[in-house]
């Protein structure tokens, strides 16, 4: 009996030693993976508490931050290292030794090198975020072996080559984002119906050929910036294939000579007729167009002063209601010039003040602090121009503020200015035009008949993006007296080609400096968050929305606050919606001192987002 008990003891000891040895191997592999990612920061693993002597999934252990575990399996499930300044390479062989790894977040870093083929060893990988890095090379064909993959975000890198055709065979893939790379070739036939709003984007690459069938509902913005692409949803149709001519029997030498000369004579004769006909048509068209041009010039001369569409072009002057006009002549006498901050990605031409004023412009909207125009340059590129009223402070102060904001605006959720102009007559700020419009218009559209609803995961992603961008700017601009946004609202949140939010018009309005200068921005974000949760865009006074939400919550009818389209949608959790609502209400607290900082807000929202993602992964694995 003693002998049997001793054997059992040795067996159990060996069994648990093997488990501990395997776990120890995973820990060491993850530490080596982190060291490869941060070659210039050897102490990073120590600061994060990644220590081979402690178990990352032991709830009582100290350290191992930036990852989460599956409670039931006691195994690493999520690694989150986004925005940490990592500038090394990805060692997928080490990373994928964690067998239960499902989510990897490495976005917003400076990671170099390629995406290794060994990434396919992460057999349970569901979400891979690598956007906004410096990765190069072609995408490994082994990506197609990730049968559990749900979302792949490789946007804003330098990947090249063709997409692996087998990627389209991953039936559960519901997010594929590769915009702003150098990928080429054709687009495989994905299961496009799997992709929600903003979760498929191949824009601004070098793809060519017809867009596969089934992509009509994706939206043209997801395919724009690829000159060789054609077919729906893009406006340019594909050219029909030329019919192949059937081979004809070889003629005899004499017959061939006779046909050859006969065909040549006929071609010369018909060419003469065609040339004469074209000349007559051209002359007739010239006469007609000349008459129409004369009539149009008379109409323009009569109505030029009242046409909002030509407000940037009339007499080389910008006129917007009560705002003073800006003319090139008077600007030249003052010595004012257009200050170009960055090269525009939409126009190859060098931006010049005179060309900007001569370009056709369309008034998009007026606000308390100025007007916004869509300006179309000579090469067809579209820009957005903000014409400020007298709210931007003195000229010198405005210039300093614009330069400081430009130096800080290095976050993917902040839209940087392309150029600005400042003189005693007024101020202009130029941005890249965002085709998908503002968050305000999207929310208004989703409430109209025929408008598309945006699901819970999209709204959560938008809220997290805005919070992270705003927190980043507050941190970057805090050294010499905080520059806040000053006018944060849903109409100033623009959606880029990937349907990600971009904070526009940052720092254009002079806001209070010193302690508490960030609190108006926190309040503005809180209102945006309430708009996202309730589906009720602010009409006039944002305080009315905050009062209404508070009154409903006080009556303990909290569930009535939420937009019905997200409550009834797939993947929505009432518990997490309530958590987000509490974040929003904290932001709109009447007492500015009681409001959290944007850094705290971003952390709270990301915690909800991770919990939401973890819940989704658990439900999919059951």
UniProtKB/TrEMBL annotation:
Cellular component annotations (GO), alphabetically ordered: membrane
Compositional bias of kind Pro residues: 238-252
All residue ranges annotated as the Protein kinase domain in the record: 358-617
UniProt GO molecular function: ATP binding; protein kinase activity
Transmembrane segment boundaries: 267-289
Keywords on record: ATP-binding, Leucine-rich repeat, Membrane, Nucleotide-binding, Repeat, Signal, Transmembrane, Transmembrane helix
Segments for region (Disordered): 234-259
Protein's UniProt name: Protein kinase domain-containing protein
Species: Zingiber officinale (Ginger)
